[in-house]
Amino acid sequence: MTTSTLTAPDAPAEAAAPESRRERRRRERREDLDAAIPVELYGLKRGTVSLLTACCVLFAIFTLVPVAWIIFNSTKTQANIFGTFGFWFARPFEFFHNFRMLFENVDGDGTYITWFGNTALYALLGGGGATALAALAGYGFAMFRFRGSKVLFYIIIGSLLVPIGAITLPLYLVYAKAHLINSIWGMILPSLVSPVGVYLMRTYIRLSVPRELIDAARIDGAGETRIFFKIALPLMVPGLMTVLLLSVVGVWNNYFLPLIIFSDNNKFPLTVGMGLWSQHATTSGDQNLYPLIVMGGLVTITPLIILFLILQRYWRSGMLLGSIAN
Amino acid sequence: MSGTAVTAPARVAQARARPRHSAWVRRRDRRGLAFVMPFLVAFTLFMIVPLAYAICESLFNSRIIGGTVFTGLSNYTQILSSGMFWSGVVRVIIFGAIQIPVMLIIAFFFATAFDLGVAKYGRTFRTIFFIPFAVPVVVSALMWGFLFEPVYGPFSHLANLFGFHNTDFLSSSLVLPSIIVIAIWEWTGYNSLILYTALRSVPREIVEAAILDDTPLWKIILKIKLPMVRPAIVMLIFLNTIGALQLFVEPLILNNYSAGVITLNWTPVLYIFNTSINSAQYNLGAAMAVVLGLTIVAISVTSLLFRRDRGGMA
Fold it and tell me: A71, A142, B125, B134: which one has the fewest Cβ atoms less than 10 Å from its Cβ?
């Protein structure tokens, strides 16, 4: 089997030769340059590039203002959060003290670190599971044509129109009957349903898993399960990463569903726990909750931002995100 | 198209009509269903069943005396005739009508600048602009709540410096614009990235030909690039509209900073939340969820028809 001749033109570069990170970065930059038409050809007035770059800087400042604020204020006491200039440090430097407080149950609402663990668990099981189901279903829809496959696919696409706001309350009503209130499965199981994921995986598999390769393996006598895991799955990795990223972020962000199904504070995800803190910070006076909210916010966003920076090449081209739009 | 239930002669006729569909292919294709099955089970249990159940519930009414009674469409008439629900709908429409165009213009501006390479350090800026996408909406509402806070917040200090004394960004007149700013902050990078991808797929030759014809740059952008990415723009308008109609988290969180400004029915989803969870009127809440769902489906279908109507650009 000569894989090289079978590889589709759109197949990811990873399938070819392994390259180091630096090489890849250099290649991507070179491709960026090659694809662009030299700026001089546009016949722009002098200074336009500087002006546009300045616009970018302004918007970057706007984007980073809340992040900067949260970093500066995670080092402050409650009095200093409100009493000192928001965009610089102030004495005393309380970063480590605030961080330690995340491990304690400060006001009886619950402990941040428990919520963090819950969120990670929900995101891992929900997001990972959603990606697995989407990969299987996307492969099924892309590679097979069984009775009703088209109708089923259209129903799944149609369900994209059903708003989260309209599905959450119905879920709650069903949970009340099925004893899933206050159960972590009530949070994880619905997260497994990702119609967008199925759509993206189908699109991606059609582009990057050559049918001929699958058929050749069948002729060689490989079973369908084996073909999926040994041949298709490795080719699907970039698509899988994007779907995983989107579903993990989706679970990490989810607020409405956990808000209504959990009344046990020890099962809260971060979003619900921090929402509760912010509610209590205003109503129950001076409990030093504000430094906790600020520090909690910082610790909540840091892993996600790091995840996005590490997985940059999967979303930066916007390939898969963009295919929603086509 | 495998025929499991057809009789033997029919199957022979079918096989003769389409010789390519051999028994082997059919048997293989049936296995495709096994791949789709796990998703279908989850989809049925957590999407179809709840929706059907909600529609059922919306036709009943529980009373303190007499238990649950079938009341037909009375929940619906109650919602459709009450100003409480519609005032929220009007508010989210105003929100979307301002936020979506402003955001898309900013997003298109930057996407174009990055695509043409007329701004320096495009890669770095693209990454920075995308950061808010990684921030949970609850956390961004909390951060912005601190920034907008009327007494100590840095933005009211800033407004003070410019001569606007005692500006309360979370007062009932300014909270909607404040939420618009938050939503723009959250979503511009994501929209810009999708537009950027769409712009990249415009064939380079077309732009080169236009340059050789001495077409000014603004004309290239507005007359060549913009029409070619129109399908992406229509899709973004559609996705953002669905999102805007479901506005919920930002007002709920901001209410903690300035109590009382956000009323129980401020947005439709807030109203559903308060009606069903806080006041335990589940049947009425279910009916509202159905109305909201149908409104969104109606908007989606209209926009899809509109898109098909205006030529097969996609």
Answer: A71
Q: Which residues contact B21 (CB under 8 A, 6 or more apart)?
A: B1, B2, B14, B15
- As beta bridge partners, residue B62 has B68
How many angstroms away from the CA of A21 is the closest CA of chain B? 16
Q: Which residues of A touch B248 (CB under 8 A)?
A: 165, 255-256
Residue scoring higher pLDDT (A20 or A291): A291
Whether residue A169 lies within 8 A of chain B, CB to CB, comes out as yes
Q: What residues make up the domain containing B150?
A: 77-309
Q: At what angle do helices A184-191 and A112-122 cross, to 10 degrees?
A: 40
The minimum CA-CA distance between B307 and chain A, rounded to whole Å, is 12
Measure in Å the smallest separation between the Cα of B312 and chain A Cα atoms.
12
Q: Do A144 and B235 touch (CB under 8 A)?
A: no
Q: Read off the amino acid at residue B251.
A: P
Q: Find the residue in B nearest to A35 (Cα).
A: B204
Cross-chain residue pair B154–A86, CB shorter than 8 Å? yes
- For A309, which residue in chain B has the nearest alpha carbon? B127
| Surface of A (188-217) touching B: CB under 8 A | 189-190, 192-193, 195, 198
- Please report whether residue B111 resides in a domain: yes
Task: Quote the pLDDT of residue A157.
Answer: 83
pLDDT of residue A286: 59
ipTM above 0.85, yes or no: no
Tell me the two tokens of residue A182.
């206050």
Does the A112-323 domain belong in CATH 3.10.150.10? no
Chain A nearest-CA distance from B291, in A, is 9
Query: Which residues are CB-contacts of A143 (< 8 A; sequence separation ≥ 6)?
Result: A205, A209, A211, A214, A232, B32
A41 touches chain B (CB under 8 A): yes
Is B153 within a domain?
yes
Total domains, chain B? 1
Q: What is the CATH number of the domain that holds B281?
A: 1.10.3720.10
Residue range B207-242, pLDDT digits in tens? 888 888 888 888 888 888 898 888 888 888 888 888
Q: Where are the domains of chain A?
A: 112-323
Q: Does some domain include residue B220?
A: yes
Tell me the whole-structure pTM to 2 decimals. Answer: 0.85
Digit-coded pLDDT (tens) for B158-212: 888 887 877 788 888 889 999 999 999 999 998 998 898 888 888 888 888 888 8
Sequence-separated (6 or more) residues with CB below 8 Å from residue B86: none
Whether residue A190 and residue B132 make contact (CB cut-off 8 A), yes or no, is no
Amino acid at A120: A
Please compute the mean of the pLDDT values over residues B76-83 and round it to a whole number: 86
